[in-house]
């Protein structure tokens, strides 16, 4: 497997916000949408997946959501699902992306679903890993992983050790959390306002899942402490063309803990 060259471009969009997009490879576009949490960014969430998709002939697109990575991090606003989705859609269009497969984890899964509903013409297929935005907020806020994340990041003394504990809560086996990953995410977390989590207000897309007509592939870690495993049933019951895989002894990051399998199964799905 070759090591792909990743380039970076920042797009100024409506509202004066900057959205950073990194990319590698060429071919059909595959957009990877990361989740929330202190220090999250496109490349840090999907570093173990980039090379496999580039080698398979795809153009890998890695945006940083507003409030994350190298994108703008406004204060004093609500971080709504429409804010995340609208800013990403505008930035992707500015980047020349007319249609793509969307791969979304957690909050990024919610953004991918919202795009699939409201910007259907841009979405070829959906790949979702423990997607968010399919429950009411109180259900998510009661999940132990999210309780821990909000408590730690809400502290004015958020530290490198806190960052490590949060990263380890995303996986079943902490061996997947490297010093490089912790340091990379901590540098981002230090630039993020508390509003990114304290004022996150995502809505529940479950009533609209039946509107998704494109093929859907989903993954869920059986030991996920952030998103209830029962979410799988919503897609299987309501969507026209969905299939899901679960993995035992895996947490919130299937694409990290089972990277080789995730890459292989997803590429097979993309090839039809």
Automatic annotation (TrEMBL):
**Cleavable signal peptide:** none
User: Which keywords, in A-to-Z order, does the entry hold?
Assistant: Hydrolase
Question: Which residues are in the AB hydrolase-1 domain?
Answer: 28-134
Which one of the record's GO molecular function terms can you name?
hydrolase activity
Question: Which InterPro entries does the protein's record reference?
Answer: AB_hydrolase_1 (IPR000073), AB_hydrolase_fold (IPR029058), Epox_hydrolase-like (IPR000639)
The record, for SUPFAM superfamilies, names: alpha/beta-Hydrolases (SSF53474)
Output the superkingdom of the source species: Bacteria
Record protein name field: Alpha/beta fold hydrolase
Source organism: Brevundimonas terrae
């Amino acid at each position: 497997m070759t090591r792909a060259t990743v380039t970076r471009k920042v797009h100024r969009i409506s509202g004066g916000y900057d959205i950073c997009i990194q990319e590698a490879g060429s071919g059909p576009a595959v957009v990877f949408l990361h989740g929330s949490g202190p220090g999250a960014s496109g490349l840090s969430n999907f570093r173990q997946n980039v090379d496999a998709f580039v080698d398979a002939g795809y153009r890998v697109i890695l945006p940083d959501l507003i409030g994350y990575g190298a994108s703008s991090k406004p204060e004093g606003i609500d971080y709504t699902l429409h804010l995340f989705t609208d800013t990403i859609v505008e930035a992707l269009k500015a980047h020349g992306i007319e249609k793509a497969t969307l791969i979304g984890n957690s909050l990024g899964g919610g953004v991918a679903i919202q795009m699939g509903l409201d910007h259907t013409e841009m979405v070829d297929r959906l790949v979702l890993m423990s997607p968010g935005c399919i429950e009411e907020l109180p259900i998510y806020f009661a999940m132990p992983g999210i309780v821990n994340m909000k408590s730690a990041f809400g502290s004015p003394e958020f530290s490198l050790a806190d960052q490590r504990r949060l990263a380890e809560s995303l996986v079943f086996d902490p061996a997947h959390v490297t010093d490089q990953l912790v340091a990379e995410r901590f540098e981002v977390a230090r630039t993020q306002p508390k509003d990114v989590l304290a004022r996150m207000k995502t809505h529940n897309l479950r009533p609209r899942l039946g509107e998704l007509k494109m093929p859907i592939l989903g993954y869920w870690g059986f030991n996920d402490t952030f998103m209830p495993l029962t979410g799988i049933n919503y897609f299987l019951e309501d969507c026209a063309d969905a299939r899901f895989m679960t993995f035992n002894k895996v947490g919130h990051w299937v694409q990290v803990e089972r990277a080789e399998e995730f890459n292989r199964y997803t590429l097979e799905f993309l090839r039809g």
